[in-house]
Amino acid sequence: MQQARKLRNRVADDALILGTFIAELSAPGSVQLVANAGLDFVTIDGEHGAYSTEQIRLLIDASCKADIAALVRLPLGDPAMYLRVLDAGASGILVPQVHTMEDVHRAVELSKYTPLGKRGVHFLRPGTNFSPPADWNAFCKEANETLITAVQIETVEAAEIVDQIAATEGVDMLYIGPGDLSMNLGIPGQATHPRILEIMNRVGRSCKEHGKIAASHIGSTEVLGQLAPLGFSVFGYSAAARLLFDGTVAMVERAHVAVGAK
Predict the structure, then answer these.
(1) Tag placement on the chain: N or C end, fewer CB within 10 Å?
(2) pLDDT tens digits for range 39-68
(3) Which CATH superfamily is domain 2-259 in?
(4) Distance CA 69, CA 91 (A)
(5) Which residue, 61, 2, 54, is CA-closest to 30?
(6) Are 139 and 117 in contact (CB under 8 A)?
């Protein structure tokens, strides 16, 4: 829980919090690399990413060693996977494709211990450093308050119930997915369209009102100036594979300039 607590403390300090998705790279060293570069969190993609449970566990292990928060994006259809990744030491869960309040309540059930949810207990796991807590009630209370349950706002239906989602006990973060949201709104790829900005504005207001974290995926740092004033503080920039691509392109360009090549 240390990394989740660290991220929450940075939110409380009004810091700019940057992360990226890991969907292609499976080597644990990739997590250490982005941590060394200064990112605050990674999101391990269990929705689009083709990872085995063991690969996700190794990436979570790497995040703990690198002292960087690791969220895991998981659809609602596999309850046992929620147990595995949280028991493995993930800092939280990002829930995609939410359409109804029933989906929101299910996300809380799967990710929180009683009385907020119905998460099962198995304390001899990496998340407890294989050392069961002496006080179960205190541990579960701390986990519920610290580990992050993030609901992705990427469907028209979720956008219509933003305030209800933010008001839900057990939901800690609302995370805009502008790509899928633009698709579902019929404006593909227009991440800064006025309709999306209006939804972002509502997310920012609702999060502020209910004391939740406002977050968004971004494809460019240029949008930070628009989102930060709306109350957003957590941003997931593209994906680690994109960072690798952009860095390679920049290096190739510098190499050509250095030798005067055309």
Answers:
(1) C
(2) 999 999 999 988 999 999 999 999 999 999
(3) Phosphoenolpyruvate-binding domains (3.20.20.60)
(4) 6
(5) 61
(6) no
